[in-house]
Specification:
By secondary structure, the protein is an alpha/beta fold. It is about 30% helix and about 25% strand. Strands 6-7-8-3-9-10-12-11 form an eight-stranded mixed sheet, with helices on both faces. The longest helix has 18 residues. The two termini are about 30 Å apart.
Length: about 325
């Protein structure tokens, strides 16, 4: 499929300042060479432990933070070097649903104003057409029409997140970045929001970048999965391949921690030793080698490149095939 979004060697380093003069003393390697593509109507899930750089990838794509290096293209047009004035016309096509439905909505604005703001900003509708668009948005996210005249604090967490999704849909985007969009919700509400996102994607042909650490949720929503560790991708595969036959040791450890709903089922839990290394001084070679149970000498000195381990399945690991 022709990609809607193409990310090539994306990097984001945050400078550290110290001393009396505030000089740069180091760099936090939050994202360090990430590449992937998303097609129209496809969901790519970006997963990994907290602090691995997932959210920074999403923010760099949207230019909420400026990338240090790399390329981001939407329909072939490069975003990372566009001046702000030219970038504005493309922001309508890229929207975001934030993690916290409490802080991401202004408490001083009614739902009507929250949803109307992006529509007015991009000059998409006014008057009766605007009112019709607001009503349609509430119908799409399954909220009552009278919600328009209420404030965010009058809603539950799940309802607030539906408002956040409606706001993202308001300018009719092609791509939505869901940054831990269900992690702050109750389990039952998570399922409702995930089902809603899947239905909206089918109806509107949306592309989704779903950032999450919850692999149980990811398995029900995604088409492909990209696993991230300490600023780098370590494995990319379609959903079935990754959950049925993970290749990278880090992916295996993540999947072994997912709860199994069957109390009689047995799963070997892989416990990783040590702590995640500092992104200020990432280890040489494979970044996972300090915690990998299969580490050997090559891992400590040579950084593994992404290679195909099965059709449509890539991993950055020195382990031989079949292990």
């Amino acid at each position: 499929m022709t990609p809607l979004l193409e990310v090539t060697d994306l990097r984001k380093h945050f400078p550290l300042h110290g001393g009396v003069l505030g000089r740069v003393t180091g760099q936090v390697h939050a994202v360090d060479g990430v590449s992937f593509a998303i097609a129209r109507g496809e969901t790519l899930s970006l997963v990994g432990e907290s602090g691995c750089g997932k959210s920074t990838v999403g923010r760099a794509i949207l230019r909420l933070t400026k990338p240090t290096a790399g390329e981001v293209r939407l329909d072939g047009e490069r975003l990372d070097t566009l001046p702000d004035a030219q970038l504005r016309r493309l922001r309508r096509r890229m929207q975001v649903v934030f993690q916290d439905p409490f802080s991401s909505l202004s408490p001083r604005m009614k739902v009507r104003e929250i949803l109307a703001e992006p529509i007015r900003n991009f000059g998409l509708a006014r008057g009766a057409a605007l009112e019709a668009r607001l009503a349609a948005l509430l119908d799409q996210v399954r909220l009552p029409r009278d919600a328009l005249d209420r404030f965010p604090h009058e809603f539950s967490g799940g309802q607030r997140q539906r408002i956040g999704i409606a706001r993202a849909l308001a300018p009719e985007p092609d791509l939505i970045v869901c940054d831990e969009a269900v992690s702050a919700l109750d389990v039952s509400v998570k399922a409702q929001i995930v089902n809603l996102l899947a239905e909206l994607q089918d109806a509107l042909g949306l592309a989704l970048l779903f950032i999450s650490h919850d692999l149980a949720i990811v398995e029900h929503l995604t088409h492909r999965v990209a696993v991230m560790y300490l600023g780098k991708l370590v494995e990319v595969a379609d959903r079935r391949s990754l959950f049925a036959a993970p290749f990278h040791p880090y992916t295996r450890a993540l999947l072994s921690a997912v709860p199994v709903p069957d109390p009689t089922a047995k799963r070997e839990r892989i416990i990783l030793s040590g702590d995640v290394p500092s992104p200020i001084h990432p280890p040489p070679g494979c970044r996972f080698h300090t915690r990998c149970p299969f580490v050997f000498d090559r891992c400590r000195t040579e950084e593994p490149a992404m290679r195909q381990v099965a059709p449509g399945h890539q991993a950055a690991c020195h382990l031989p095939m079949g292990m």
